């Protein structure tokens, strides 16, 4: 049985083994449909410090995670924990204002359960965003990076376990998880708005601690340009379900091993807040072009 909407954090964690079954998704969708009949074209996941994009949405309905059976609760500062239904850039969207992370104690199946629900609500495309550390020596804090590819360094995978073939194939292809057409639209939106848009590889680690100098050197040597603690699990599940995916990372702190300085959540949130208008412009521009 799926965890109840009123369940405690441990109760919700215990329900992880059922998070990726059609029946569990249907229960969550039914609860949402009891509050709104809104059908979304595009789903958006807002990362740490990036919830401000929600203010750009012409809101029709808001549903708190606590009112959705099986939905984990956001426990991280700046993650509100609610679904926003409305329009942006001429498209009908549903935005997660607050994502879930492995380091909160949830399984990756629970972290990605909302992606199943968003798809079941009608979304055919998913736009993901995150705050991250920059390891490319020519980039700066405040830059926005278009995700071209990713590395899963979480030591886990949300598709481990029984596969419900109604949701996707047992062995989904990941040769191009980030849609080339959507990325082209993002570049066009950036050019029009005169926003410098970087493009590179995101690596996901478990967290919650930030990395050591040696770890940054290793991750950079592996081919990553930025590092964070999210996004990859959601993209894996989106690919499993056949969603088109577009990803943006906002670099909030520089992680160059030779010049590394201590980072705090306050500094990260401040940089994210300053850079967030660029993300809103890019997402709106992509939606207008879709």
Description of the molecule:
There is one protein chain. With 290 residues, the chain is α/β, with parallel strands linked by helices. The chain has one domain (9-289): Rossmann fold, CATH 3.40.50. Helices cover 31% and strands 23% of the residues. The protein contains 7 helices and 9 strands, in the order ααββββαββαβαβαβα. It has helices at residues 9-14, 22-33, 108-120, 180-193, 213-221, 232-241, 265-289, and strands at 42-46, 58-64, 82-88, 91-97, 125-134, 144-152, 197-204, 226-228, 244-254. A 5-stranded mixed beta barrel has the order 5-8-7-6-9. Helix 3 (108-120) packs across helix 6 and helix 4 packs across helix 7 (265-289). The longest helix has 25 residues, at 265-289. The protein is globular, with a radius of gyration of 18 Å.
Quick description:
This protein is of the alpha/beta class and 290 residues long.
Q: Tell me the major beta sheet.
A: 5 strands, mixed, barrel
Percent range for β-strand residues: 15-25%
Distance between the termini: 38 Å
Give the domain tally.
1
């Amino acid at each position: 049985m799926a965890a109840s909407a009123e369940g405690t954090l441990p109760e919700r964690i215990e329900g992880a083994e059922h998070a990726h079954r059609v029946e569990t998704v249907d229960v969550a969708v039914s609860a949402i449909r009891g509050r709104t009949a809104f059908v979304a074209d595009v789903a958006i996941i807002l990362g740490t410090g990036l919830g401000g994009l929600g203010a750009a949405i012409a809101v029709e309905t808001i549903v708190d995670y606590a009112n959705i059976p099986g939905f984990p609760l956001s426990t991280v500062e700046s993650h509100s924990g609610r679904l926003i239904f409305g329009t942006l850039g001429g498209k009908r969207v549903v935005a997660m204002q607050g994502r879930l992370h492995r380091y909160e104690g949830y399984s990756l199946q629970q972290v990605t359960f909302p992606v199943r629900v968003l798809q079941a609500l009608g979304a055919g495309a998913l736009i993901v965003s995150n705050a991250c550390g920059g390891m490319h020596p020519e980039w700066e804090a405040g830059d926005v990076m278009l995700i071209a590819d990713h590395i899963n360094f979480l030591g886990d995978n949300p598709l481990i376990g029984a596969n419900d073939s109604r949701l996707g194939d047992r062995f989904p292809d990941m040769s191009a998880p980030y849609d080339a057409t959507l990325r082209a639209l993002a570049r066009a939106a950036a050019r029009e708005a005169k926003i410098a848009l970087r493009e590179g590889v995101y690596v996901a680690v478990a967290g919650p601690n930030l990395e050591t100098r040696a770890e940054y050197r290793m991750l950079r040597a592996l081919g990553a340009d930025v590092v964070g603690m999210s996004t990859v699990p959601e993209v894996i599940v989106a690919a499993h379900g056949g969603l088109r995916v577009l990803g943006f990372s906002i670099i909030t702190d520089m992680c160059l091993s030779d010049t590394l300085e201590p980072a705090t959540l306050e500094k990260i949130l401040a940089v994210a807040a300053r850079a967030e208008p660029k993300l809103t412009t890019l997402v709106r521009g992509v939606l207008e072009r879709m």
